[in-house]
Amino acid sequence: MRNRFWIGLSMIFLIPGVIFVTSCAKKPVKPAPSVVTPQAAKEAEAKRLAAEKARAAQKALEEQRIREERLRAEAKARREREEIARRERFVNEHIHFEFDKSRLLPEAKEILRRKAKWLKENPDVSVIIEGHCDERGTNEYNMALGDRRAHSAKSYLIDLGIAPERMKTISYGEERPFDPRHNEEAWAKNRRDQFVIQ
Hints:
By secondary structure, this protein is of the alpha+beta class. It has a domain at 93-197: CATH 3.30.1330.60. Helices cover 61% and strands 11% of the residues. The chain has five helices and four strands. It has helices at 2-23, 38-92, 106-121, 139-159, 184-190; strands at residues 95-96, 127-132, 167-173, 192-197. Strands 1-4-2-3 form a four-stranded mixed beta sheet. Helix 4 (139-159) links the parallel strand 2 and strand 3. The radius of gyration is 49 Å and the shape is rod-shaped. It starts with a helix and ends with a strand.
């Protein structure tokens, strides 16, 4: 009987406890369904399109900047190549003279006009005009003839507006032949003025 008493007593406390625990269990909360109005959907789409348009405009601006930068670099490189070519032409284009003469031929004057134009475009450049001769004649005579040839070119350039202090002359006579052969073709090449940029 005692056992029944204790069992009955424990049941009195146990049953309400079980009911209490099971009734307090949390049920999952379902989120309320979101309601998107047509106006809100339109506004969201407009924002998305505006952001997309802004990104596209930014990308186009960046592409344009890169394109312009590349074009500027290409133009600069082209100008530098052209200037190098003009400079090389200035140095490598010689004027030639008749045998035993220092007067300028028409072709030489045309070359000197191009050289004067380049010198005017490059006012910081100074030049040495070298007078040369072929091997015929004495060393002393050829040194004097080379000097006259160099001065002939310098005088013409002065007449074309180049300041005399930008030019020096020197004669090498027959000492530095352009063509070392001993024939008329070589001698014609060796009777020349050369231009050296300082």
